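S.,

Sequence below, as promised.
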Amino acid sequence: MGSGRAGFVPTHWSVVLAAKDKNSPQSQEALETLCRTYWYPLYVFARRQGHQPPDAQDLTQEFFVRLLQKDYLDAVERERGRFRTFLIMAFKRFLANEWDRNRAQKRGGGQTPMPLDPELAENRYQAEASIEMAADSAFDRHWAVTLLDQALARVRDEYERQGKRAEFEILRRFLTVGKDPMTYGTAAIQLGLSEAAVKMAVHRLRRRYRAMFREAIAQTVAAPADVEEEMRHLLHVLSH
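The prediction came back faster than expected:
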């Protein structure tokens, strides 16, 4: 995707538009890309709506399978705005109008199942199930976490390409505040650097992480002008 320094990065709308072309050999791959990236926030939404784990899994998987079959994407244009908003509104319509739970039908409508991991999903969900949160808020929160995960993975890849994976694994502990936080002194000993050098390395890592998060957000909106507003919204969601 690039670093974003040369201009506005390609967006996920290109994936959506590719998925709309049913004659394209890339259509199924594009749909699976959407599924792998965004199925968990939708799973959380379904669970917060009161659906039990097996039903939430079926609903999420069926939604992605039928995304093409029912022409959900035909009216979509990238100028319509945030991909986050499009996806949750489409899922809500699906839950309200398209799912007949009384049908005895093979999961995925007889199509190849999407690559979901229901056990992992439910374990993640139960870890925070006690937190009072509306379904829409839970969706937005996990959407933001998904983009943070993408940003972190891209930064990790950069460090790996530079042969600095071990350094990354130490410095990444400064990105979050835990019960047992890493100290600059400890990191300096482990890395064989001065504390001043570690502080500078952490500063660079945080700056790059934020840039990658911003770029991940940019891929989900229709115009560069929308990035900052979306970033403020997601950071607000993460802080509550």
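The chain has ten helices and no strands.

Coffee later?
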